[in-house]
Amino acid sequence: MEDWDQETLEKVCKYFLGVVKKKQYGWFWDCPNGGKNCHYRHALPPGYVLKSQMKALLDEETEKISIEEEIDNQRAKVVTSTPKLFLQWKKKKIEERDANLAAQQADRAKNDRMRYIHYLFAIIHM
Length: 126
Known about the structure:
- By secondary structure, this protein is an all-alpha fold.
- The protein folds into two domains: 1-52, no CATH class; 78-126.
- The protein has helices at 6-10, 14-21, 51-63, 67-77, 83-124.
- This is C3H1-type domain-containing protein.
C-alpha cells in the first residue's frame, strides 16, 4: 500500500459501480473482489451522476421554463394599480380601522363601567 500513487487510490471498484447502478448497494453488501480487502474505492467520485439521475435531470431541464417567461407569467398575475383602485383600497382600510377603534372604545367603556361598579360595591361593603 505504501507504493500506491494517488491515481490508484482514486480508482472506483467496478463491482461497486455495478451494484450502485442496479440499486442493490446496502448495509450488508460485500465486494466480490475481496470484501474489505478490495484495493479499489467503494465511493462514488465527486460529481458522478448515475444514468437514471441523468434522465431525470434532462427531463427536468426540458420542462423548465425560461426566467423571462416566468417573469412575464408573474407580471400577468399581478393586478395593475390605478389611482382609482388605490383610493378604493384606502377608503376600505380607513373604514376597517374606524370600526376596530369603535369596537375597542366600546369595550373599554364597558370595562370602565364594570370597574366603577366593583369599586362602588367594595366601598359599600366596607
